[in-house]
Amino acid sequence: MYLAGKKALITGSRRGIGRGIAVALAKEGADIGINDVEEDDAAEDTLELVRREGRKVSWHLADISKASEVNRMIDEFLEQHNSLDILVNNGVFSIRKNFLEITEQDWDTRVGVNLKGYFLCSQRAAQEMVNRQQGGSIVNISSVHAFRAWPDDMVYGMCKAALLRMTRSMALDLSGHNINCNSVAPGYIDSRVLSSEQEHMRGGEGYQFSKDWIPARRAGVPDDIANVVMFLCSTLGEYINGECITVDGGLMTGGTPPID
């Protein structure tokens, strides 16, 4: 178990990619903190999935765009887990909107979660890791939207691009503290909320059109991202630092996605 004894906090993890990451890290031995801004049946399902792996799991309701809530969340995490070894920044707030229609509130709320929130969580987590002097791992979930523009995605794509630069600065400024900082850029991931009876559809049924423009001939699934995050947080990826790993089935190297 590559993460035995580690304590990991994953933001935006009540479902989708975040849930996949939480379960993957738990399978490798990590105790888990689940964060989101909404507590619902999906959140409880995620907690139960982690419990089934025999790991300790905690729930943290918090808006990562607010420093006071980030500090409270990490204080609560430390109270329950005693240390913080891994932070995965996955929270997201996105809406498709044309450049001419973006309001100041749109800008503030989306930058607040998708960029400022990652900074706040990373800084506080890094401070704890430095004080404990046992190193750690921070992974920022970016997107292929960091590399090219799609219609109506300006603020989201801008934040995801900025994360790549922030990750490099984090890696450099935290050098000497044995804290690795990397990012992962998912491509087209089928993170739909599906029932257990529908789970067989993930990455396929309902997403068949993706086979025409993704070289891997399928949409990605949360486990595709989770496995890479696990790798980066383990000793397997300990010599990777300040990098971005694109996980997109070849989309950005040879695929031709539709404009709309």
Q: How would you sum up this structure, described in words?
A:
The longest helix has 29 residues, at 104-132. Helix 3 (67-81) runs parallel beside helix 4 (104-132) and helix 4 (104-132) packs parallel to helix 5. This protein has a single domain, classed as NAD(P)-binding Rossmann-like Domain (Rossmann fold). The chain starts with 6 loop residues before the first strand and ends in a 6-residue tail after the last helix. It is 40% helix and 14% strand. It has a 7-stranded parallel sheet with strand order 3-2-1-4-5-6-7, sandwiched between helices. The chain is of the alpha/beta class and 260 residues long. The protein is globular and about 45 Å long. The protein is built from 7 helices and 7 strands.
Topology:
Layout: E1 7-10, H1 16-27, E2 31-36, H2 41-52, E3 57-61, H3 67-81, E4 86-89, H4 104-132, E5 136-141, H5 154-173, E6 179-186, H6 222-233, E7 244-247, H7 251-254
Parallel strand pairs: 1-2, 1-4, 2-3, 4-5, 5-6, 6-7
Give a brief rundown of this model.
The protein is an alpha/beta fold.
CATH structural architecture: 3-Layer(aba) Sandwich
**CATH homologous superfamily title:** NAD(P)-binding Rossmann-like Domain
Instruction: Show unreliable segments.
Output: none
Please identify the structural class as seen in this structure.
alpha/beta
Mean pLDDT reading: 92
CATH topology: Rossmann fold
Based on Cα principal axes, name the global outline: globular
The strand order across the widest sheet is 3-2-1-4-5-6-7
Strand content: 5-15%
| CATH level 1 name | Alpha Beta
Computed Rg: 18 Å
